[in-house]
Write a structure and sequence with these properties.
- Helix 2 crosses helix 4, helix 3 packs antiparallel against helix 4 and helix 23 packs antiparallel against helix 26.
- About 55% of the residues lie in helices and about 15% in strands.
- It is elongated.
- The chain has 30 helices and 21 strands.
- Strands 8-21-20-19-9-16-18-17 form an 8-stranded mixed beta sheet, sandwiched between helices. Strands 1, 2, 3, 4, 5, 6 and 7 form a 7-stranded antiparallel beta sheet that branches.
- Strand 11 and strand 12 form a beta hairpin.
- By secondary structure, it is an alpha/beta fold.
Length: about 800
Amino acid sequence: MSKVSDGLSSAEAAARLAADGPNALPGAQRRSLPALAFEVVREPMLLLLLAAAGIYLLVGDLHEALVLAASIGVVIAITVGQELKAERALEALRDLSSPRALVLRDGERRRIAGAEVVRGDLLVLAEGDRVSADARLEAAQDLELDESLLSGESLPVGKRAGDAVFSGTLVVKGQGRALVTATGARSELGRIGVSLATLDSGKTSLERETARIVKLVAAFALALSAAMMAAHYALRGGALESVLAGLTLAMAVIPEEFPVVLTVFLALGAWRISRHGVLTRRMPAIEMLGAATVLCVDKTGTLTENRMSVVETPQAVIDTAALASELEPFDAMDKAIVAACGKDILEKRRRWPLVRDYGMRGDLLAMCHAWSAGEGALHLAMKGAPETVLRLCGRPELIGTVQGMTDKGLRVLGVAEARAEQLLDDPRAYRWQWVGFLALADPLRASVPEAVALCRRAGIRVVMITGDFPGTALNIARQAGLDAAEALTGAQVAAMDDAALAAAVRRTNVFARVRPEQKLRLVQAYRAAGEVVAMTGDGVNDAPALKAAHIGIAMGRRGTDVARESAALVLLEDDFGSIVETARLGRRIYENIRNAMRYIISVHVPTAGMAFLPLAFGWPLFLYPVHVVFLEFVIDPACSVVFEAERSERGMMERPPRDPRARLFSARMLATSLLLGATLLAAVFAAYAWAVSSGLDHERTRAVGFAAIVFGNLGLIFVNRSHERLAVETLREPNPALWWIVAGALAALAAAIYVPAAAAIFRFAPLGAAELAVAAAAGLAGVAWYELRKLAARRR
């Protein structure tokens, strides 16, 4: 067995995880296959198919009823497969979004998924952490927890060694170490059945807009279907045949693919974003990414590597700063200081009891430790903002020295020490002696200048908001390529009224010495100016600003659980480049959704039109339910697989952000889509009319018209891959799913026309080469004008 002080060994932890199961709370169960199938059957398209199959049974056409029943099975299989793919993507995101825990394993600190915490683990708790399991405190310093989730009590509860802490509660102050006693369903939180850290399941604005459109079209389809039934009965009689004709028209009109597209695109979009190191916690963030105009980022760890080293600092200053650093340093700055201090100081940190830890707070930007140096004497060490420490030491005149160091991009801390015989509640009351300045270097990430330049070309303004000195912030900002003529400090921001701040945010890209509560005011100022704001944060006090931003982005590595829970996105690697890549992916996802929707609207027009026009001209019915099902087998995978897999347009990040108020189904988009569908309908009808006038029999005439629709359908896929590039240009972009769909559709069409058994089902007869060529030419001619429009737009 491992020593308790070292935590569990990896082998012990693995064995307990296997025995007890993951540290997961009771939550939403994954939907079973039967449940998914039942949900699919309730969709309007399937209900119409079932009704059509029932009518065939009533009229005694068992063969047609069986064909439709088989078609229903295939449709259910395809749709359920798409739903399962989306669910798997969301499940992977839920795993990523579970709370993280800092534990001791094999004597080392490790950050693991909360689900991997087991009985016997040693949890290391700090301000902002969400406790991941029930545990017993072994050590605690000024530890207070918010237990309102369990007790309803809003006031923090003080904790000391020996007390119990519970899963789901929040550390609001201090730090501690706790031995895990219960996990998962066996924890107090698990017993009362509360589930945390699940992905947001609310409807996005796109889903709400799409649902509204589907309802309107469905109402129109029902009215049109009723009119079709009445017209058929009046012209040709036959009640059941009239109902069947009306059902076919309704099936052809209803765009049941809309919800599928959004489900698949948003789920897989979130999954694609996660592969670039960004976790999506709230789906609406994906919609807003393409509209972001201002990106507010921290300096340390986001623009820089968060790989600090002590430079230009005397050893005595380093040693005192080490005494003011955490006992078990996790922060990059504390790690660098402790690594650079002398061996005697390391020995004192091990040997001296730490009597009091004074944490940083709003009115004291410094950390202070009180050590028992023996014989009743206290040795105190402080490190923090130079202006704060200098003021406490009565040496404000030295503040000018900081400028030269910060101009080099160095992070500067003030260091002081004191002696005392008794503890005081307020660390400012001690008699502090100035020790010196400590300088740390944190290099800029190599990828940042290029990413900032890409943001500028994309119309996204990058703003740095940091707690560092103005000189340090300006130096790093200039290295990063920001327009950094000046830096506003938090004190200056606090002194401004709303009007002055509104003017300042228009011209300023660097804010220094900013406190977390001032970040909220800056976000509100940008929002008031009409900007779409993305904001990064990592601390407890950053939560309001993260919530206020259109897109809150929490740091995954150094961020607190509170920040992560308040954010819409979480950077798993705290890398600025990941934010920019996410913005590009957000634009891609929205563009692909728009292309897919344009295709869906277009492709339904010729299908619906050809369900009605032959009746109006006194010709035999053209479409039956089986034909609509065939077309759906092409439309469904095309809109949900082909368009989702499309890569970003070239120059995607050379365009300004889209207007967040703009509707997906804008008047221009709808007009273009309907015009595409109308021209294809005209071309298909022309081919069908040619076949009628040529004296072809009903089966060959129907085959000509249907082949024209299939060719036009494939043409619509190609021209809608991009609303700017020509179809021949998009052929250079790999999309394997596209070619599988094209090959499958053409093979199925050939089978339906030339295989006797299949031709009998579809009421087709074999076509000659000339007839097939007419159908192909008509289908492609119906969409050719859209390519000419792209050429004309390019020349303007």
